[in-house]
Amino acid sequence: MTLSPKRFGFACASAAGLFYLGCVFLMAVAGAENLAFFFNGLFHGLDLRPILVDQMSVGVTITGFVHTVIMSWLFGALVAVVYNLSACFGRRRQR
């Protein structure tokens, strides 16, 4: 079985984009204190208040979304290529 780098990259980028939009929605709806409580629980009690930003401009949000999607697509495509190459080398050893 081989993976299509374009399709796998698209799947990773879509999942990361949806996750990013979920985080943006959470930041818009929850207050700063609730946001800090949520992320502290998510990261096993690590205090993230010093680096937590509760106000972001629309430009920064869109730029972050675009960068997240692009980097996730590249990561997914790379994983698919490495998987396909490792499958190729695995077949050669079995012969």
Report on the structure:
This protein has 95 residues and is an all-alpha fold. The protein has a domain at 5-28 and 56-94. 77% of the residues lie in helices and 0% in strands. α1 runs antiparallel to α3.
Largest sheet, described in full?
Answer: none
Poorly predicted regions are: none
Number of DSSP helical runs: 3
**What number is the mean pLDDT?**
90
What amount of the residues lies in strands?
A: under 5%
End-to-end Cα distance: 17 Å
Instruction: Give the radius of gyration.
Output: 19 Å
> In one word, what is the shape?
elongated
Category from helices, strands and their pairing: mainly alpha
The quaternary structure here is: single chain
Task: Give a brief description.
77% of the residues lie in helices and 0% in strands. The chain is mostly helical and 95 residues long.
Chain-wise SSE layout:
Blueprint: H1 5-29, H2 32-42, H3 58-94
